From TrEMBL:
Keyword Ubl conjugation in annotation: no
GO molecular function: hydrolase activity
Provenance organism: Peribacillus simplex
Domain Isochorismatase-like: 4-131
Record family assignment: Belongs to the isochorismatase family.
Protein name as it appears in the record: Streptothricin hydrolase
EC number of this enzyme: 3.5.2.19
Superkingdom, natural source: Bacteria
Top EC class, one word: hydrolase
Record-linked PANTHER family: ISOCHORISMATASE (PTHR43540:SF14), PEROXYUREIDOACRYLATE/UREIDOACRYLATE AMIDOHYDROLASE-RELATED (PTHR43540)
Gene encoding the protein: sttH
Cited InterPro entries: Isochorismatase-like_dom (IPR000868), Isochorismatase-like_hydrls (IPR050272), Isochorismatase-like_sf (IPR036380)
Keywords of the record: Hydrolase
């Protein structure tokens, strides 16, 4: 089954300001880099999704420092970068066409934020026919919310996603 690793919104904004730090952000980057390294070794396509604001005054406007992919990610020239402007990585982007053109059958998800762009994209992928997807624990994260802390948000979403929208893999991060 042909796979693609999809990494959502791992951008500098989540690493530049303490109030925006993702939960366990240093371990998160290590875990995602481990997935990237394995994907590159196994010729699995790596796709970075990059939130891009249409507002020139926004921190995530294209070209701004906060908009850039995190400097410690193992981005290769063979990786695909797709810009999005909404929570759904499929909405008005080339992602679906790219996956179909490259005959990708299974998606492996990672990135941020768990309850926003990651959740929306995971559910959209399922509805679009990608129903055998994977997610490794500790390869996605979010910020503390008003009602729930980041850890609870992550656990809650993993419990909803698992065996419904994808398979959550607990244990060694191994493709």
């Amino acid at each position: 089954m042909k796979q693609a690793l999809i990494i959502i919104d791992m951008q500098e904004i989540f690493f530049n300001y303490p109030q925006n730090y993702l939960f366990n952000n240093e371990q998160l980057v290590k875990n995602i880099n481990e997935l990237i390294k394995q994907a590159h070794e196994k010729n699995i396509q790596v796709i970075f999704i990059q939130h891009t604001s249409q507002n020139e005054k926004d921190a995530l406007f294209e070209g701004e420092n906060d908009w850039k992919l995190h400097k410690n990610l193992l981005v290769s020239s063979t990786d695909k970068i797709i810009k999005k402007s909404k929570w759904d990585s499929f909405y008005q982007t080339e992602l679906l066409d790219y996956l179909r053109t490259n005959e990708i059958e299974q998606l492996i998800f990672a990135g941020a934020q768990t309850e926003f762009c990651l959740d929306t994209t995971i559910r959209a992928a399922f509805s679009l026919g990608y129903q055998k997807n994977l997610l490794f624990k500790k390869t996605h994260s979010t910020l503390n919310g008003v009602i729930l802390n980041a850890s609870d948000i992550i656990n809650h979403h993993e419990s909803i996603w698992n065996n419904r929208f994808l398979t959550v893999i607990d244990g060694e991060t191994k493709l």
